[in-house]
Amino acid sequence: MAEDVKEESVTSNDESDLVASDGSLNNKMLTEGSCLLRRMEICVAEAEKRSGKNAVSMQETYTVYLVETRPMDTIAEGRNPPPDSLWRRYSEFELLRNYLIVTYPYIVVPPLPEKRAEFVWHKLSADNMDPDFVERRRIGLENFLLRVASHPVLSNNEMLYHFLSKEHGWKEMLYETGFQAKADSRLRALSATFRVRSPHKRLVEIKHYSDGLQSHTSQLLRARTRVADRLYAVYKVHGNYGRVFSEWSAIEKEMGDGLQSAGHHMDAYAASVDDILEEEEHYADQLKEYLSYAEAVRAVCRKHELSQFELEMASQDLISKKQQREELATGIVRTFSLKGMTNKLFGQEAPEQREAKLSLLEELIAEGEETVKEKTAECNEHAEKAWADIIHFKDQKDKDLQEALINYAFMQITMCKKGIQVWNNAKECFLKM
Amino acid sequence: MSGATVPADISGHMLDLDEDEDLEVFSKNTSLADGNPMPNSPDSMVNQFRLDEENEEEQQGAINKDIFVTVDNPESHISAIETFITYRVVTRTTCSEFDSSEYEVRRRYQDFLWLKSRLEENYPTLIIHPLPEKFVMKSMVERFNDDFIETRRKALHRFLNRIAEHPILSCSHHFKVFLTEEELAPHRKLGPGFLSRMSDTMRAMANSVRGLRSKLEEFAVMQEYVDDFSNKMCSVDKVTHRIIKEHREYMDELKQYGPTYFQWAESEELLAEPLKGVGSCVERCSKETEEQIQHLSEFLVPTLHEYVLCADTLKAVMRRRDNIQAEFEAKNEALASRTTDKEMLQEEVDDLADRVEQANNALRGDWSRWRTSMRADLKSAFISTAAKNVDYYEKNTYKRDRGGSFDLNLNLNRGWMRYMTS
């Protein structure tokens, strides 16, 4: 399956050749500057339930998703080969995403669909095995892959390619990169509170924006859920009219027919709310995606802050080392230090010791200067790349959410049109009473 | 001999002074029993109704309505003993029975109660439109709350107009007195006293315990219908109240939902317009829902409520009819077992037989009349509700349409270029 695809495009089987220094794949599939999606059709076609033993040897049921890929050029040529496919679990998608986050700290990595059903209105199942939930998750996972595969930077990643083509052994490959350790250390560093002396103005603004985006979308989603609940109740209660009219029509002569048919329309009205709210879930999903995106943006800003902080620490360290050197060289103690005190108390050291110390310091200072230079470059590069990706994100967000809002408006219009129809029908029936 | 409307047992009560008028009415009525429809009989009214459903109310009015009553202008009266509300009752009439063509009086709720009980006494098997209920403590509504007074006023207005439209009740002496006399108090003192009413009730109870010998099939069917109708009306009423409650809660949530869009719009540039658009649609929706609730409360709820009360009225009418029959049967039995005084007893029995006949006829006549107006009332209430719902959805569609035509022109660069060069 996946092997065929590989043979078509891979020049050598030696995987180390395939990987360039920045982790992108040297591969006809993934030419520099073009994104994977142009070369390959990707979709998450199906979902299936599986049973098996998990890590602690307990029986569990889980869902797997079928990831299908097809090279674009074969489609363009008119051939229609069957797609290559493999099965992936949600946890594997998570693994891929975490890898991408660690590998590209300055990129806003597209989010996954929610792990657990949140913002649930009462009828909607919060059960992960519920078919509607699974279906919406399938769509979300496909969306994730499409977004990643069309990203100018992320789409070149080797692990992404393997995720799509190598069913077994992909996880091992991933662990071999050692990203887990990086992820853990990053996580620890980020969760510590630190203050940055000269924060990057624009990125701070973006961070505040992303906080706002998070809170606004979650407020909206919460309110929408409650509205959905109430709307459901309103529609369903009309079903009671259906029942009562039907019973009542049995005892009436002239009014009977009109009442009975009106009752049927009330039943139809009550039933129509299920489809209406099902559709609205898609709108909610789009908002949830951007709720998660906001978190991703925030993470990028925070990571830059961390870099900045590390740079500042390194600079501080350099400065203090230089100061130490000066003190040692001139013998003048500018600042209070324990060394200074002990020197005063117990006398200074011998010149040889001082020389040794000085030369060590010089080494450290040279190292420090290198470190600072590196960190500065890293920080700036990070900021630049982050900024570029954030612009890219914002454009995408504006476009996507505008479309989502328009679709929502159309959904509401459809709902209203249905309502008009039902009540006009009911009115006709009442006129016949 | 045409039967009297007053019970044969005349112990200790005073006769109505204008009994003759009532007798006249009843002699007209017995001709009805022959099956000759009068110009303003229920049958011809029904025909009229079928001809022109649009203006049926007016048509009915055109035929037999020459008394037009309005109830308005509630005012509170405060005295040392109590506080109460009076309503202005204005009557305009071309009816020859009335001395003048226009009257204006003030009446309080108790006066309406008096009128109703007199009508019930005099026409025990006619179906009288219900009065709004007495103030009930548990309903948590203040007695002098504006909404309560307005609801009551409308119901009192309907009550009087239904009587005015009724071919028999509109000729009632008490009705005339109610509409025309400045002071009702002296008239309220006349009429069957408390004691006689008590004896009536006790006799009725005794009769019901004895049970009826045989009930005409048609009345048994009627009884069954009345019981079913009562159940159905209560159900429809309950469902309607539940719908209103759910609408209200929906509206409350919409009021929280709308602002989330506006709040978000504040931190957006390109998205601000679309967000505000959706937000204002949500706002509009909650206003429309409010109107919808208003409409239901103003039109459907009072009508359904009245027919719930009507169902009780019908039950009472059936009971009274049964009592009249029971009384007759009791006396009849007594007659069969008597050996002396047979003649006098026979007279009484004949009297009662007539009474039964009249009661049944009155009920029959009024039954179809009632059915027609019930149908008309409920039909128009439901139509109005459906129409309002259509209107609700139409208004929301229009708003969404306008809100939906956001500027699809994604002038992306505009906002961000500016930002980047700053």
From TrEMBL, chain A:
<dbReference type="GO" id="GO:0031901">
    <property type="term" value="C:early endosome membrane"/>
</dbReference>
<dbReference type="GO" id="GO:2000786">
    <property type="term" value="P:positive regulation of autophagosome assembly"/>
</dbReference>
<keyword id="KW-0175">Coiled coil</keyword>
<dbReference type="Pfam" id="PF00787">
    <property type="entry name" value="PX"/>
</dbReference>
<feature type="coiled-coil region">
    <location>
        <begin position="358"/>
        <end position="385"/>
    </location>
</feature>
<dbReference type="InterPro" id="IPR034902">
    <property type="entry name" value="PX_SNX4"/>
</dbReference>
<dbReference type="GO" id="GO:0032266">
    <property type="term" value="F:phosphatidylinositol-3-phosphate binding"/>
</dbReference>
<keyword id="KW-0813">Transport</keyword>
<feature type="region of interest" description="Disordered">
    <location>
        <begin position="1"/>
        <end position="22"/>
    </location>
</feature>
<dbReference type="GO" id="GO:0005886">
    <property type="term" value="C:plasma membrane"/>
</dbReference>
<keyword id="KW-0653">Protein transport</keyword>
<dbReference type="InterPro" id="IPR037430">
    <property type="entry name" value="SNX4_BAR"/>
</dbReference>
<dbReference type="InterPro" id="IPR027267">
    <property type="entry name" value="AH/BAR_dom_sf"/>
</dbReference>
<feature type="domain" description="PX">
    <location>
        <begin position="43"/>
        <end position="171"/>
    </location>
</feature>
<dbReference type="GO" id="GO:0015031">
    <property type="term" value="P:protein transport"/>
</dbReference>
<comment type="similarity">
    <text>Belongs to the sorting nexin family.</text>
</comment>
<dbReference type="InterPro" id="IPR001683">
    <property type="entry name" value="PX_dom"/>
</dbReference>
<dbReference type="InterPro" id="IPR036871">
    <property type="entry name" value="PX_dom_sf"/>
</dbReference>
<dbReference type="GO" id="GO:0031201">
    <property type="term" value="C:SNARE complex"/>
</dbReference>
<protein>
    <submittedName>
        <fullName>Sorting nexin 4</fullName>
    </submittedName>
</protein>
<dbReference type="InterPro" id="IPR034783">
    <property type="entry name" value="SNX4"/>
</dbReference>
From TrEMBL, chain B:
<feature type="coiled-coil region">
    <location>
        <begin position="314"/>
        <end position="362"/>
    </location>
</feature>
<dbReference type="GO" id="GO:0000407">
    <property type="term" value="C:phagophore assembly site"/>
</dbReference>
<dbReference type="GO" id="GO:0005769">
    <property type="term" value="C:early endosome"/>
</dbReference>
<keyword id="KW-0653">Protein transport</keyword>
<dbReference type="GO" id="GO:0015031">
    <property type="term" value="P:protein transport"/>
</dbReference>
<dbReference type="InterPro" id="IPR027267">
    <property type="entry name" value="AH/BAR_dom_sf"/>
</dbReference>
<dbReference type="InterPro" id="IPR036871">
    <property type="entry name" value="PX_dom_sf"/>
</dbReference>
<dbReference type="Pfam" id="PF00787">
    <property type="entry name" value="PX"/>
</dbReference>
<dbReference type="GO" id="GO:0061709">
    <property type="term" value="P:reticulophagy"/>
</dbReference>
<protein>
    <submittedName>
        <fullName>Sorting nexin 7</fullName>
    </submittedName>
</protein>
<keyword id="KW-0175">Coiled coil</keyword>
<keyword id="KW-0813">Transport</keyword>
<dbReference type="GO" id="GO:0034727">
    <property type="term" value="P:piecemeal microautophagy of the nucleus"/>
</dbReference>
<dbReference type="GO" id="GO:0035091">
    <property type="term" value="F:phosphatidylinositol binding"/>
</dbReference>
<comment type="similarity">
    <text>Belongs to the sorting nexin family.</text>
</comment>
<dbReference type="InterPro" id="IPR001683">
    <property type="entry name" value="PX_dom"/>
</dbReference>
<dbReference type="GO" id="GO:0032456">
    <property type="term" value="P:endocytic recycling"/>
</dbReference>
<dbReference type="GO" id="GO:0000422">
    <property type="term" value="P:autophagy of mitochondrion"/>
</dbReference>
<feature type="domain" description="PX">
    <location>
        <begin position="65"/>
        <end position="185"/>
    </location>
</feature>
